[in-house]
Amino acid sequence: MVPQPATAITQEQSLRRAIPLFDGALATRGYELNAMCFSFNEKANRDAFLADEDAYCARFHLTPEQRKAVAERNVLAMLDAGGNVYYLAKLAGIFGLGVQDLGALQTGMSVDAFKAMLVTWAEKIPHARIPQKENA
Amino acid sequence: MVPQPATAITQEQSLRRAIPLFDGALATRGYELNAMCFSFNEKANRDAFLADEDAYCARFHLTPEQRKAVAERNVLAMLDAGGNVYYLAKLAGIFGLGVQDLGALQTGMSVDAFKAMLVTWAEKIPHARIPQKENA
Amino acid sequence: MMAKIIGGYFTSHVPGIGGAIMRGDQETPYWKPFFAGFPPIREWLAEARPDVAVVFSNDHGLNFFLDKMPTFAVGAAPSYDNADEGWGLPVYKSFEGHPALSWHLIDSLVRDEFDITTCQKMLVDHAVSIPFELAYPGVESWPLKLIPLAINTVQYPLPSPKRCLALGRAVHRALQSWGGDERILICGTGGLSHQLDGPRAGFMNPDYDMFCLDNLAANPDALTGHTAEQVAELAGTQGVEILNWIAARGAMGDVPLAEVSRNYHIPISNTAAASLLLEPA
Amino acid sequence: MMAKIIGGYFTSHVPGIGGAIMRGDQETPYWKPFFAGFPPIREWLAEARPDVAVVFSNDHGLNFFLDKMPTFAVGAAPSYDNADEGWGLPVYKSFEGHPALSWHLIDSLVRDEFDITTCQKMLVDHAVSIPFELAYPGVESWPLKLIPLAINTVQYPLPSPKRCLALGRAVHRALQSWGGDERILICGTGGLSHQLDGPRAGFMNPDYDMFCLDNLAANPDALTGHTAEQVAELAGTQGVEILNWIAARGAMGDVPLAEVSRNYHIPISNTAAASLLLEPA
Ligand SMILES: [Fe+3]
Ligand SMILES: [Fe+3]
Question: Is the Ion transport keyword given for this protein (chains C, D) (predicted)?
Answer without folding.
Answer: no
